[in-house]
Amino acid sequence: MIRRLGGDLLRSRAGLAGLALLLAVAGFVVLVPWLWGPDADTIDFAVAKQPPSGAHPLGTDFFGRDLLARVAAGGRESLGISCAALAIVLAFGFLYGAAAALLPPRLDAVLMRLVDALLAVPRLPVIVIVLVLFGLNTSAFTVVVALSVGGWMIPARLVRLELVALRQRPFVVAARSVGVGPLRLVRLHLLPNTLGVLLVAAFLELPTLVLSEAFASALGLGVNPPTPTWGNIAYDGLDEARAWQVFLPSVAIAVFTIAANLVADGIQESLTPGGTTWRGRSGPGTGVERAVRALFGRPRRPAEAG
Amino acid sequence: MLVYVLRRLGWSVVVFLTTLLITFGLMHAIGGTPFNASESSSVPLAAQWRLEAYYHLDQPWPVQFAVYLWHIVRLDFGPMLSYRDASLTPVMKEAVPISLQLSGLAAAVAVVLGFPLGIGAALRRGRATGALLTVLATILLAVPVFLFAELGRDYVAATPLATTGWGSLRSMWLPVLVLALAPAGYVARLVRAGVVEALGEDWVRAARAKGLRRGRVVLVHVLPGALTPFLAAAIPMLALLITSAFFVEQIFRIPGAASLFIESADRRDYPAILGLTAVLALLVVLAILAADVAAAALDPRVREARR
Questions:
Q1: Which of B150, B228, B283, B299 is best to mutate for the A interface (most A CBs within 10 A)?
Q2: pLDDT averaged over every residue in chain A
Q3: Out of A117, A122, A282, whose CB is closest to B15?
Q4: How far is CA A22 from CA A15, A27, A81, A260, B80, in A?
Q5: CA atoms of A292 and B138, how far apart (whole Å)
Q6: Contact assignment for B236 to A292 by CB distance below 8 Å
Q7: Are B236 and A295 in contact (CB under 8 A)?
Q8: What whole-number distance in Å separates Cα of residue B51 and Cα of residue A74?
């Protein structure tokens, strides 16, 4: 399946562009701190607040730190935190969704109602509250936890939908009829068949997580300085009213967001031959719409009732 | 219709109570007795006593929750930690209306900007203009709001055209505009999707075949069809507005609820955070209710088919 998916992704123009952009961002974030001379944390007041120059292609910040190095190192931190949160979100989302799908319908209804309610809650305040509960003693770990608390609902819902559909398929019925227990059923039959959905969920959720991390950091509530993250760099820029320093991480975030959405679109298309899976009244939507939906809860489509 | 509204109302009350129960539980999770001097020595003793009396901490927790509910119902949010004598209610009475004003205006501006953008992108689909408008909407959504806010503060608020703060028209238009940008992008994408779909429908073809002018076809035949999903998008839009408000209020120094929230978070003023969370939850629940009822009013299928 993965191989077919790769092929489809390479054939769709948007998917290819998204993949290339993602690789470019990843390459930038991994290679620059490794190859580029100046360190992200070296303070040198002699060159503070410089505009772009030969020695510092993106200029320097208030402490004379090289902004190219900081944006790259910050991206590494931001993406690392987001990927860690993504792993937790997908794992918990899968477990929750699987539990909902396999438990009696009454419990399933309760569990999904809870997800509905949580999806309506804006994510940023929730993340701030979790960070405050940790006493604002913020490390990468607490940010990962805060991001995870805010983000597991969409994967849970996607997994449940998929499993409810799978539940009636002959191979699952057959497995159950020969006495396969629920755990084994999930591990051998259901998990492998939800990989596609999880992949879509991953690429929809990832930019959301990156954005949430940036928002929390840009409010001064993220990973403690001097560790650079995209949000932290922007926070310093906002603090010193230097638009340039806010601009750099913002562009990085925007490029990453758009790229991940393009890839999610490509995967979605590949998994649903013939274009769209369902024609809701709002239409299947583009990647960014789905990202917004994932970020802030899905619009409750009236057509679902009909 | 009435039955439907009542059912949604009941559901809203359940959701709101659950949220309050969670915030109340969090309050308790911050240490066994939340206002223990040994644990948080920064809380003055007087404030501690006020809090203990206010929350009836000598009673069992169901009583405490009932007391808490009763306070919230009367819009009495209790004392704050950050200011020695301040109680939260008057502070919120000042901050919350400012935020409601700001986000209400921004929502209106977002619709005004987003609709033409979305309609234009849909009608010119497959051409350069359409692609350009679509890209524009995407950029509005993907670029973090703090960049727009910073640019506005640096390059516009520094001129005589605008100031920071809140109250005069000169100070209000810029934050409202910045706050409206991301939601406008969202509205534009939604409207575009709705219009593109509607353009392919039979009734639109019929209207065009009758020889109606283009503007009339779009306004009378296409847009109403694109409106119902738009209503359903009220919740994501509200969330976008709230998220953006955090930055817009901070950067333009607007003394609203989002500023208060961040300030309280910085000072670990738990009662203030929880009070604001309760208001936020109420706002979200009411928005969902309004969107549901409006959708049901527009589309009979919704009110009939719901369980």
A1: B150
A2: 78
A3: A117
A4: 10, 8, 17, 7, 46
A5: 11
A6: yes
A7: yes
A8: 42
The predicted-structure confidence for A144-188, as pLDDT tens digits, reads as follows 998 998 888 888 988 888 888 888 888 888 888 888 888 888 888
**pLDDT at A41 (0 to 100):** 72
Q: How many Å lie between the alpha carbon of B301 and the closest alpha carbon of chain A?
A: 6
Q: List CB contacts of A3: < 8 A, sequence separation 6 or more.
A: none
The helix (run of H) or strand (run of E) holding residue B227 is: helix B223-232
Residue-wise pLDDT for A233-278, tens only, equals 888 888 877 888 888 889 899 999 888 888 887 777 776 544 333 3
Give CA–CA dist A247/A59, Å, rounded. Answer: 12
Q: Would you say B268 and A135 are in contact if contact means Cβ atoms under 8 Å apart?
A: yes
Please give the Cα distance from B103 to B114 (Å, whole number).
15
Residue A240: name the closest of A252, A250, A230, A232 by CA: A232
Euclidean distance between CA atoms B189 and B231, whole angstroms: 14
CB B270 within 8 A of CB A137: no
Q: How many CB pairs under 8 A join A and B?
A: 177
Q: Select from B235, B243, B266 the Cβ nearest to the Cβ of A297.
A: B235
Instruction: Residue window 176-235, chain A: list those with CB within 8 Å of chain B.
Output: 211, 214-215, 218-221, 234
Q: What is the mean pLDDT of each run of 10 residues along chain B (307 residues)?
A: 82 82 72 47 65 69 79 75 70 86 91 89 81 86 87 79 74 88 88 79 80 78 71 77 88 87 79 82 82 76 58
Residue written as tokens 């580029």?
A: A36
- Is the pLDDT at A284 greater than 80? The verdict is no
- The C-alpha of A9 sits at a distance from chain B's nearest C-alpha, in angstroms, of 21
**What is the band of A283 on the pLDDT scale with cuts at 50, 70, 90?**
very low
Nearest CA in chain A to B305: A305
How near does any CA of chain B get to the CA of A175, in Å? Answer: 32
ipTM of the complex: 0.78
**Nearest residue, CB atoms, B142 vs list A125, A238, A257:** A257
Q: What is the DSSP letter of B233?
A: T
A109 vs B: CB within 8 A = no
What is d(CA B183, CA B189) in angstroms, rounded to the nearest whole number?
Answer: 10
Return d(Cα A297, Cα A291) in angstroms, integer: 9
Q: Between A32 and B181, where is the model more confident?
A: B181
